[in-house]
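Annotated sample (chain length 492).
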Amino acid sequence: MGSGLLVAGTTSDAGKSVVVTGICRSLARRGLKVAPFKAQNMSNNSMVTSEGAEIGRAQWIQAVAARAIPEAAMNPVLLKPGNDRRSHVVVLGRPAGALEAGEFAGGRKHLADAAFGAFDDLRRRFDVVVCEGAGSAAEINLRDHDYVNMGLAQHGSMPTVVVGDIDRGGVFASMYGTLALLDAADQQLIRGFVINKFRGDVSLLKPGLDSLERLTGRPVLGVLPWQRDLWLDSEDSLALTSRPAHDGDGALSIAVVMLPRVSNFTDVDALCLEPDVRVRFVDDPRALAGADVVIVPGTRATLADLAWLRSRGLDTAIVDHARRGGPVLGICGGFQMLGTRIDDPHGVEGVPGASAAGLGLLPARTEFGHEKALRLPRGSALDAAASGYEIHHGRVTVDGGTEFLGGTREGSVFGTMWHGALEGDALRWAWLREVAAVVGREIRTGEVSFPAAREVRIEALADLVDEHLDMDALLAMLSDERTLPVLRGTLR
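Output written by the structure step:
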């Protein structure tokens, strides 16, 4: 039976995903067989595994960091928000209905059972399971039914470290308060703290670190410095505004429409690394002015986001851009919006019988069905090898145009059902050369390999973890977890 470690947080976006990724690679470099785990992920940013299962993108990249094959057990419950009160549920990689907001507290026992079963299975097969919590470790309103944070820690009798983002301010209060809000049994599992995203001289923190350790009886296991260039495949859209982007008069300007329910926005990550490409996220038609290329990304609610597009006047701006000869790329839901019509007879997205006309830029019609496509397609386009992944309920019928990656092309308007296609270097370079020629620009290609860049970032993150975290203390926790010493006292 392997060991387990829970990396919890004081808040959402405290850096849990990044810390888990770094720890996974650090342990893997030590020769351990490591698996990442997140009992429940709420995200529209997902990935298809080789077994044809859907998991959160963050757990997929953590598996890559762990040098493990991504699998459904690593993210047994995935909630994909359709609106503010309803989420589509994926259990062990397969669609499993929907949850309304009122069900979140007491109607999830079957989800907890699936999560605990998946965790136990991984623990039997791996030396270490590095678990990522969700939101705050002190979600006390949800504690009775929790299976993601301290409920999971209690199930696995796991040592837990709490990560706090110092860039938000108030990190010492949030760490002390997180511990203080927990009951005595949960407090016993909190073994230390990690401060994330620190800028400056770490010696300035020493009085605060000493006080926190004295007040809580727990060590600060490390202070991770803020690093701009270590962004990874993100789990939610909080990271969109921090994407790196190149600038310059000669850059190819790409405007990505930031849909309210955007999904799989990592489709454009590779473009952000290209030296002659400038990527901007826009939600206003005026922001499209001056863009060479427009990308309409995927969405978890195609009809609702199409209505939003029209309410903002972005539909007219995109159509005008295309009619002037400007390149447009629609990916999955974005491709469906570029077609002629979208129908949802069964209410897959919420309202049975809902339908709407598309933007009419491509000869494609979409009908949503209950069956979900989860595939890892391969092929070619623009004389380049291509691969990607499909995650969708919509069945698209194409009448005319030129076949393009599970979609179609009309002139400089492209539509594809394949997520992740631009991560392939050959296809991305070919597409960039194509659209650059359309707008009369010359750009460099062939200088950036996205898979290689991802590996460099993972290795650099593991280097930071090894340098700035007390990995010996973490390893000692893992070896002693079955006989964790009882800490003296509890906070009141």
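Annotation: Residues 199 and 226 are 6 Å apart (CA to CA).
Annotation: The chain has two domains: 3-231+455-480, 252-442.
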